[in-house]
C-alpha cells in the first residue's frame, strides 16, 4: 500500500534521512520509533509532502506521488495527523472535521466517526480550542479519516495525552483499521501504545533504520535501549 525507496531528506545542509526504504502492506500498522531528533517527524513530513525529498520515491498503491503536493497526496489516499494536533481553535468540532472532506462528494460527517469518537458528537458545536488535549487528538484523527485514506500517518499521537485516552485511541485505531482496511504509519516513543496497535516496528537512529521486528518477534528490551538516553 505504501512503498518508500532510497529516501534522502535534508534540512538546509544537514542530511537528516539517509536512503530509507520500507514498505507497508494493506491493513498493516508500522511503528517508527526512536528518540527525539532521530528523524521520525522529518520522515512523516516528507511522506505527506510538507518537506521535499532530495532523492527517492514514495508510492501509494503503486502510484508515484514523490512530486505531488500535500493536497494531491491526500487525494491519492494519504491521511496525516501532525505532531501537536493543530486544530482550528475557533472553528467548531464539526467544522474542523469537515475541513478534511475537500475531496469527498458527500460533505456529511460519516456516522462511524461519531460512533467511534462519541465525545466528538457530544461536543460537535463546541470550539475546538476549548477541548482537552486528548479530545483534540481524537478530533485530528477523525479529520484525517474522513478523507478515506489508504494510508494514515500519525506523528507522536500520544504526546500530551493522558493514559486513559491513549488506551481509547489505540482501541479506536484498531477498530477502524479492521473495518475500513487502511494502513498506518505511526511515529512514537511510547512502547506500550505501539505494542497495542503495531504489527511491525522500525527503530530509527540518526536518519537510518537500525532495528526491525514484528509483534511476534519484537525485542522490547532492545527497543527500550534505543528509546532511552
Describe, in plain words, how this protein is organized in 3D.
There is one protein chain. The protein is of the alpha/beta class. It has a single domain, classed as Rossmann fold (3-Layer(aba) Sandwich). It is 34% helix and 27% strand. The chain has helices at residues 40-48, 70-75, 93-98, 111-116, 118-122, 133-145, 163-180, 191-197, 220-227; strands spanning 2-11, 14-24, 29-33, 55-60, 63-64, 78-81, 151-155, 183-188, 200-205, 208-214. It has a 6-stranded mixed sheet with strand order 6-7-8-3-9-10, sandwiched between helices. It is globular, with a radius of gyration of 17 Å. The model has no long low-confidence stretch (mean pLDDT 93).
Kindly list the characteristics that best describe this protein.
Rossmann fold; single chain; six-stranded mixed β-sheet; alpha/beta; 229 residues; 27% strand; 9 helices; four-stranded antiparallel β-sheet; globular
Write a brief caption for the model.
By secondary structure, this protein is of the alpha/beta class. Helix content is 34%, strand content 27%. The longest helix has 18 residues, at 163-180.
The general outline is: globular
Along the chain, the helix and strand elements come as EEEHEEHEHHHHEHEHEEH
Rg, Cα atoms, Å = 17 Å
Quote the beta fraction: 25-35%
- The CATH topology name reads Rossmann fold
Count of alpha and pi helical runs:
9
CATH superfamily assignment? Answer: P-loop containing nucleotide triphosphate hydrolases
Question: How far apart are the termini?
Answer: 34 Å
By secondary-structure content and strand pairing, the structural class works out as: alpha/beta
Task: Based on the coordinates given, report the CATH architecture.
Answer: 3-Layer(aba) Sandwich
| Major sheet: arrangement of strands | 6-7-8-3-9-10
Helix content: 25-40%
- Poorly predicted regions: none
Amino acid at each position: 500500500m505504501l512503498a518508500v525507496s532510497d529516501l534522502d531528506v535534508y534540512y538546509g545542509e544537514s542530511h537528516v534521512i539517509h536512503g530509507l526504504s520500507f514498505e507497508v502492506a494493506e491493513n498493516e500498522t508500522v511503528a517508527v520509533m526512536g528518540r527525539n531528533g532521530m528523524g521520525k517527524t522529518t520522515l512523516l513530513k516528507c511522506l505527506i509532502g510538507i518537506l521535499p525529498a532530495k532523492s527517492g520515491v514514495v508510492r501509494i498503491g503503486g502510484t508515484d506521488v514523490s512530486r505531488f503536493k500535500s493536497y494531491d497526496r491526500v487525494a491519492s489516499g494519504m491521511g496525516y495527523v501532525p505532531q501537536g494536533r493543530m486544530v482550528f481553535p475557533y472553528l467548531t468540532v464539526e467544522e474542523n472535521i469537515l475541513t478534511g472532506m475537500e475531496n469527498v462528494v458527500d460533505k456529511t460527517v460519516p456516522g462511524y466517526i461519531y460512533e467511534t469518537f462519541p465525545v466528538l458528537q457530544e461536543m460537535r458545536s463546541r470550539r475546538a480550542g476549548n477541548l482537552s488535549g486528548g479530545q483534540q487528538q481524537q478530533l485530528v484523527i477523525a479529520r484525517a479519516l474522513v478523507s478515506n485514506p489508504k494510508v494514515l500517518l500519525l506523528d507522536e499521537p500520544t504526546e500530551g495525552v493522558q493514559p486513559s485516552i491513549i488506551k481509547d485511541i489505540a482501541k479506536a485505531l484498531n477498530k477502524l483499521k479492521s473495518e475500513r482496511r487502511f494502513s498506518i504509519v505511526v511515529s512514537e516513543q511510547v512502547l506500550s501504545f505501539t505494542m497495542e496497535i503495531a504489527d511491525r516496528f522500525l527503530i530509527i537512529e540518526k536518519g537510518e533504520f537500525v532495528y526491525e521486528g514484528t509483534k511476534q518477534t519484537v525485542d522490547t528490551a532492545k527497543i527500550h535501549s534505543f528509546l532511552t538516553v
